Amino acid sequence: MNLEKYIKNEIKSLNLKFLSEETRNFIPEISGNFIEDKKLFSNFWNKVKLEKLSLKKEKKITKINIKEINTFCNITKKIFLNKYSALIYREITNDLKTFIRVEELCSKASTVVDNLLPSFEDLEKENKLFLKDKEGLEIQQGIFLSALLKNEVEGLHLCKSMLLPTKMAKDRIEDFEKNGKVYFDGASIESFEDYDLVTLKNSEFLNAEDNRTLLPLEAAIDIAIYSKKNNICVLRGDKVTHPKYKNKNIFGAGINLTHLYEGKIPFLWYITRDMGAVNKVLRGHSDINFDLEDSLFPHKNKIWFAGLETFAIGGGCQYLLVMDHIIADINSYMTLPARKEGIIPGAANLRLWRFIGNRAARQAIQHGLKIQSNSTNGKNICDELIDINDMDKVIDQRVKEFKNSGVVGAASNKRALILGEESINQFREYMSIYCHDQAYCHFSKDLINNLEKYWHKAHKRN
Fold first, then answer.
1. pLDDT tens column, 205-225
2. Are 216 and 181 in contact (CB under 8 A)?
3. pLDDT of 108-164, one tens digit each?
4. What are phi and psi of 163, to 5 degrees?
5. Which among 18, 161, 185, 253 has most CB atoms closer than 10 A?
6. Which CATH number fits domain 167-419: 3.20.20.150, 3.90.226.10, 3.40.50.800, 3.40.120.10?
7. DSSP code of 50?
8. Which fold has domain 3-161?
9. For strand 232-237 and strand 181-183, is the pairing parallel, antiparallel, or unpaired?
10. Number of H helices and number of E strands within the chain?
11. Taking the model in full, what pTM does it have?
12. Where in the chain are the domains?
């Protein structure tokens, strides 16, 4: 089926009777002239938007009608981006000479093509709403990033741009070198004799990750990679205040479901996290001279340990899959509760099967399999099991052992293993699919229902 026929069939299934006949019967077509096409498509998107706003103001359409109008508009954006995403990216990045993150990239897209992505004002309004009340405008960001990442050259440029140190980290590196510690609101980094310790701090929410912890945790990871003092880094979760786990260290409770339900976690949170902090633990910092081969100018990487205490749920488990050595509390466990949450668990779909096999990975992701650290599957993820009270002592011992056997060799072996397991090009291809599908998952009715069913009722009981 050709693209034109496919688009017509897709649009035919939508209820667009609320739009003017002129609008619903007009589908802009690609001519191949970017200047003319961006004007044509931009005017069309603006016309649809104005009609939708008028209908909303007059209360003539329902949420379902709004969703179908947005779907109509998004289909035409896919047509446009299928042709021009690489060109748009090159214009924003000055033909790949400028390196910008996904957040800035999305904010600048409409400076190249009007109405391509939601405006700052539109997003400000959306951000004040609970997730169930949002219109889903951020799906356009997912469509844009997905189309961009499909292009190998431009997609790899973005992947490597996201592996550069953040401004938040650069602003505090001097403090760290001087004082040996930096505390952010949501994470910290502290230097010890043989390693640098990064700690996730969100004790009120069992060390769940949210918009508050996102950039601080990445900045702490950046500083750990950037620092010249130690070649080994350790990631742990802070002690928490919840009565059930009071004063216990918890590695991570995944995405903050309270904030997700309340609409406080934007779609780009997922992309920033997985292309930034998590991918940096795996690959390190990239070199910005993209004209040179990575083999001659490799990423600046470190060896990463994890201290798995109590549990690693969702995003916590995702971090374990990029670690070099995991020391786990013998009674700890891991889960990837994607079925209950209704979202894709980061890059776990790309990575988990390498540890525990395809069937067990499907059971974990699709059916909520709980992986005890002392089970067969758990032992395929964790390197050693210990009493939780011995965590500090064992980390110190293992780090010394790594240092004595040669950290340079360990880093080189890590680089070779990553190439065989998951090249950055494979990661780019995965993220192209992830950006698209996660956008729709984030605003799906299933996610709202699952939050209501599995989380909100339990939360109210507590």
1. 999 999 999 999 999 999 999
2. no
3. 999 999 999 999 999 999 999 999 999 999 999 999 999 999 999 999 999 999 999
4. -95, 10
5. 253
6. 3.90.226.10
7. H
8. Methane Monooxygenase Hydroxylase; Chain G, domain 1 (1.20.58)
9. unpaired
10. 24, 10
11. 0.94
12. 3-161, 167-419
